[in-house]
Amino acid sequence: MTVADERAVEWLSNLVGKSPLLDGFMRLMVNDYFVPVGLALVLVALWLLGTDEAARGQNQRAMICAAISIGIICAIIEICNHIYPNPRPFQEMPWLMERVKAIFYPPTDPSFPSNCAGVTFATASAVWWRNRRIGQWLFIPAFLMCFARVYAAVHYPLDIVGGAAIGILVAYLVHKFLLPLLEPLVVLLLRLLRWLRVA
Amino acid sequence: MEHLAGHYLLFVFIAACGVIQLAAAYSKLWGLLFFKKRVPSYIFAAVAIGGAFGWFFGCDNHMEEIMHTGLEGAQQVRFFLLATIVAAFFTLILSSVINRGLSSSSEQPEVSAGITKEGLDTLREENYLRALLSSIRGTTSVSMRKDKK
Question: Which domains does chain A have, with CATH numbers?
Fold first, then answer.
């Protein structure tokens, strides 16, 4: 990673322990549950939202797009981690370990690209392509979670940028090319679920 | 770890029930609601979602476990899907029992206009089990009533 990256992590994580309120907020944002579960629950709500069948169909396609994107992102990041096993900031700068342990745990998998950035930004983008009104709000928790990861010194800013870029790109490609390709299957699935009165 | 897994399932189940009530109330899917009106449904949703998040993340034991790796990613996804599906089934069954008297009325403007609703839209007028039954019979309750006439 670049010197600027290291400086940014060091500077930001230096704030750990300065304010209990900020640390408490970051503990909430940084963990693997709060934001991911929140975003997934929004996807559940999207399935039901819509004034008519057409609007609901768009929301349901957004949910399908997000689910496919998340699957692809996880596979891409898994491959990237094998090809480029970049160490975490606290592994390259051991003095940061205390700060990591203060608000999170030290993950053992490679740092680049950030998995959480990929998944959260892919979810937000997938929704945004179909439903701008709801999608725009999803970028806020996505950003906060990624910011908290740098704050906790478990990611470099470049990991986040890389993960977010891959997430947004994959969601766009799924929305623009893969989903239209799968449209007959999607229509069939939605027709079956409509027959069951659950879509 | 098992303790956290059980609590995670319960957390997602309660929060998902709340989210389904919130979305159903907003979309006026009366057949899915636990309450006859939207305001109590919104209140229920707020209490369920807020309570589930507050309980799971406010409890020190959970935060300690979460901060020491907690559940594995794939396991977390599996548990989330399981809890959400159970919450959906729970909502469909309970709302059908609560709204057992709800059936499509001839006074509905869509019905009088001859528009047949499909999918979730049928739950604006009738409960889930009734809607599913009419779907299985190959006809909506709307067309059944027309036949009777």
Answer: 3-195 (1.10.606.20)
